[in-house]
Amino acid sequence: MALLKAARAADVPTLDVVAPGLVVEAGTATASASAAVAMVKSGAAAAGGGRFSVIGHRGKGMNALASADPRMQEVRENTIRSFNDAARFPVDYVEFDVQVTKDGCPIIFHDNIIFTQQDGKISQKRVTDINLEDFLQYGPQNEQGKVGKPLLRRLKDGRMVNWNVQSEDALCTLQEAFEKVSPRLGFNVELKFDDSLEYQEEELTRILQAILKVISEHAKDRPILFSSFQPDAAQLMRQLQGTYPVYFLTNGGTELYTDVRRNSLEEAVKLCLASGMQGIVSEARGIFRHPGAVPKIKEANLSLLTYGTLNNVPEAVYMQHLMGVNGVIVDLVPEITDAVSELIALPEPDVEVDNLSNQAARGDTTPNFSQREISFLLRLIPELVQ
């Protein structure tokens, strides 16, 4: 087995987005580890065919402002600069969050609420309640001499901090991303909705059609896949178009919601099969806690991607490859792409990025492991899950 470098599980950056309730009892972790290793050893979870994809999270990585790791504040997330910085490494896609402004313009921004400060007073607005012109006045400005409104961010623990990073760039629209980002990169367009709001079909349709209009006019031959945590939005996007694959985003049971469709990998599979979606994007911990779900996802001819802080650990990424995961969404783009190039024998990329909707259930063989390597993986899994 190739040398594992870049990071150990204990060195994962402490982020401000770690989901609650993820601690697993030792017995549960050991059982999950045994199941996962058994899958690898028997070849039951043979890796999906095609290219194992590395996807840059919000570009070159999200901004974790509470982290002591300077890499997590290197470049402003969800900007043209972050996307093009990611393109300097062997990533296949960049993932970003799309919302639609009050006047109908798709913009790229993760948080539901945007914060600023003036004369010592903090003010906030819902991103979808402001017009494009107002949205673009926040943060750094590309126009020389122009000063934007200072950006603040509310952390998971409620603290408000200045949103400062080492390499700045202005906020951008979806159209700008198509026009200014390296054409070799695919786009994983996350359809972003607020969990605290209820959406009627008419409103969802208006939002999704605004996004599809920009894509139809500017996508050209760029590979695109849609994803969303909002089950109705994901289903509706599948109904509105058939050109691009749609993936359902799920926490994989690591958090619970009133909508049961969001509460497990099993429910995610049911939703995808019922609506014709092509894949699932799961929190990586959900895969490690329930490794038996992976072959079921493959049997359903669905592609499988993961996200989460574990994807900043090369060992965890490698294990997912062996389990049959098709790709990972990562923050530490340089480190993980370097590790993947060493750990996983990748085929030469085609001129066009291999479409992730076609990767599910194409049978390759799982590499053979020595007993020593199997023992290493068995010890590793409980550490990762906990």
Write the layout of secondary structure elements.
Blueprint lengths: L25 H17 L10 E5 L22 H7 L6 E8 L5 E3 L4 E6 L2 E6 L5 H4 L16 E3 L5 E3 L9 E2 H7 L5 E6 L9 H18 L5 E5 L2 H10 L5 E5 L14 H11 L3 E5 H6 L3 H7 L3 E5 L6 H10 L3 E4 L2 H11 L27 H15 L1
Parallel strand pairs: 1-2, 1-14, 2-9, 9-10, 10-11, 11-12, 12-13, 13-14
Antiparallel strand pairs: 2-3, 3-8, 4-5, 6-7
Helix pairs in contact: 1-12, 4-5, 5-6
Keywords: Glycerol metabolism, Hydrolase
EC number: 3.1.4.46
Protein name: glycerophosphodiester phosphodiesterase
Could you walk me through the main structural features you see in this protein, from its secondary elements to its overall organization?
Belongs to the glycerophosphoryl diester phosphodiesterase family. Its EC number is 3.1.4.46. This is glycerophosphodiester phosphodiesterase. The longest helix is centred in the middle third of the chain and has 18 residues. The N terminus is likely disordered. By secondary structure, this protein is of the alpha/beta class. Helix 5 links the parallel strand 9 and strand 10. Helix 1 packs antiparallel against helix 12, helix 4 packs parallel to helix 5 and helix 5 crosses helix 6. It starts with 25 loop residues before the first helix and ends with a helix. Strands 1-2-9-10-11-12-13-14 form an 8-stranded parallel barrel, surrounded by 6 helices. The protein is built from 12 helices and 14 strands.
